[in-house]
């Protein structure tokens, strides 16, 4: 019985009778409409929730989920320019769409690296790094959280602008090349899918039950001497991001198709808070 109710509501959502953002009838109304018990109606709603079709907001009711058109991020790119997903350089896609908002200044910190960061940057345990943390937005929609870690030896050799709380218009890839003649030769990406933590849930306005995962990318960039010069850790919510990897000869219109920026949802998700 609960599947019959769920399938009927699903068809209404797909047909547009229940448009995105609309509120479902109350539990009592659904029980009367389908002549069903409380548990049957609740099981039907739970089935819709697990499939990402509706969400329950405490004290408000159950609503049809606002769909977001994902933004496609190309992980591959030109190592010389640094373009590609997970970089703190210019995001080609958002620049192309002219939707990237004026960036907030990065939050800077000088810290002792944890064992994982030390290993990825080939530093001694507890080596000193400069971290630059920056949230990313597209048309007001929180899109990514990015933190880049730089070995302190870069600053000691003259790259002092890494310590300034300012967005570098040409990116740190070009800055390091111009300032220290350190040219990025390549990078290594690792991707992990996991549940968001509390701060990520608040920032991305994700459902509090963790059903929308985040993708964490860790990009270690290397110079021509094969030294790691940057580790960029970026967290992307899975509901508004897709990743593309181009290998070999790929047609230009396939490699960089005309894109759409993510559509901002009209209602915050369950457990959401203001930025």
Task: Describe, in plain words, how this protein is organized in 3D.
- The chain has two domains: 2-64, Winged helix-like DNA-binding domain superfamily/Winged helix DNA-binding domain (Arc Repressor Mutant, subunit A, Orthogonal Bundle), CATH 1.10.10; 71-255, 3-Layer(aba) Sandwich (Chorismate lyase), CATH 3.40.1410.
- 27% of the residues lie in helices and 27% in strands.
- The chain has helices at 2-15, 27-34, 38-50, 92-97, 115-120, 152-156, 171-180, 198-204, 252-255, and strands spanning 54-57, 61-64, 71-74, 107-112, 128-138, 141-151, 184-194, 214-223, 228-237, 241-244.
- The chain has a six-stranded antiparallel beta sheet. Strands 1-2 form a two-stranded antiparallel ribbon.
Structure summary:
This protein has helices at 2-15, 27-34, 38-50, 92-97, 115-120, 152-156, 171-180, 198-204, 252-255; strands spanning 54-57, 61-64, 71-74, 107-112, 128-138, 141-151, 184-194, 214-223, 228-237, 241-244. The protein has 275 residues and is α+β, with helices and mostly antiparallel strands.
Integer average pLDDT: 83
Q: Which fold name is given in CATH as the topology of the largest domain? A: Chorismate lyase
- Oligomeric organization of the protein chains: single chain
- Give the helix/strand class: alpha+beta
